[in-house]
Amino acid sequence: MIPRSTLRRLPALALLLALSAVVPAQPESVRPGVNRQFENPDVERFINTFETESRAIYHYRHAIAEALGLTEGMAVADVGAGTGFFSLLFARRVGPEGKIYAEDIAENFVKHIGNIAAEAGLANVLPVLCTDKSTELPPASVDLVFVCDTYHHFEFPQETLKSMHQALRPGGRLAIIDFERVVGVTSEFSINHVRCGKGTVTDEVKDAGFDFLKEIPLMKDQYFILFAKRREGPASTNR
């Protein structure tokens, strides 16, 4: 015989089980603590680190902008904008009718970009404090999402990619530049610094509802790949 005390608890237990069944599980960080240094970054120090010709993406910044095919009036999200040199470069290419959403999880960077954009007279640069899961952009608001040296900092890549997919207009593109990671070929820095290589990144992006377009050969130790938003949304098996 079941004790009366147990019988009295059954409705509450049943309700608890029912609620737990409908509440979706929260995603786990794939790299806990990877962005700790950006909680309160020293902007001047990062300017000296990021904006130097010895850094490949800065050296090739104009070639990268050219390869993206930016045109006047485009709306672009620069996700992980950092010190903002790409945001300002893109802003000049899309013209006053275009928009550049300069996004970062670090408030210090976002404020800095707002200041330098104002000093440069670029009213089309819109600083956005995003989160580690969301671009904080409205649906179908941009033509291109640009992610440079930032994908390996995504703690919740599935959530972030979902947000990017939603923010892109039909036929919109996603550009990713990051470090190659090939054991025995690439540097020890890259092996230790990035979570995964180009193949895994490509698979994750495809699974999030994008089609691979092409790879642009430009830098020796970094890949530059383009994707297009798939109309039917995320795929479960096709790659």
Explain what the structure shows.
With 239 residues, this protein is α/β, with parallel strands linked by helices. The protein has one domain (60-229): Rossmann fold. The chain is 37% helix and 21% strand. It is built from 9 helices and 7 strands; from the N terminus they run ααααβαβαββαβααββ. The protein has helices at 4-22, 43-50, 56-59, 61-67, 85-94, 107-119, 157-167, 188-193, 198-207, and strands at residues 75-79, 99-104, 125-129, 142-148, 168-179, 210-215, 222-229. It has a 7-stranded mixed beta sheet, sandwiched between helices. Strand 6 (210-215) and strand 7 form a beta hairpin. Mean pLDDT is 88; it is low at 13-21.
Summarize the structure.
The protein is α/β, with parallel strands linked by helices and 239 residues long. It is 37% helix and 21% strand.
Comma- or semicolon-separated keywords:
single chain; 239 residues; alpha/beta; Rossmann fold; seven-stranded mixed beta sheet; globular
Which architecture name does CATH use? 3-Layer(aba) Sandwich
Low-confidence stretches: 13-21
Query: Number of helical segments?
Result: 9
Q: What sequence of helices (H) and strands (E) makes up the elements?
A: HHHHEHEHEEHEHHEE
CATH class: Alpha Beta
Class inferred from helices and paired strands: alpha/beta
SSE diagram, text form:
Elements: H1 4-22, H2 43-50, H3 56-59, H4 61-67, E1 75-79, H5 85-94, E2 99-104, H6 107-119, E3 125-129, E4 142-148, H7 157-167, E5 168-179, H8 188-193, H9 198-207, E6 210-215, E7 222-229
Parallel strand pairs: 1-2, 1-4, 2-3, 4-5
Antiparallel strand pairs: 5-7, 6-7
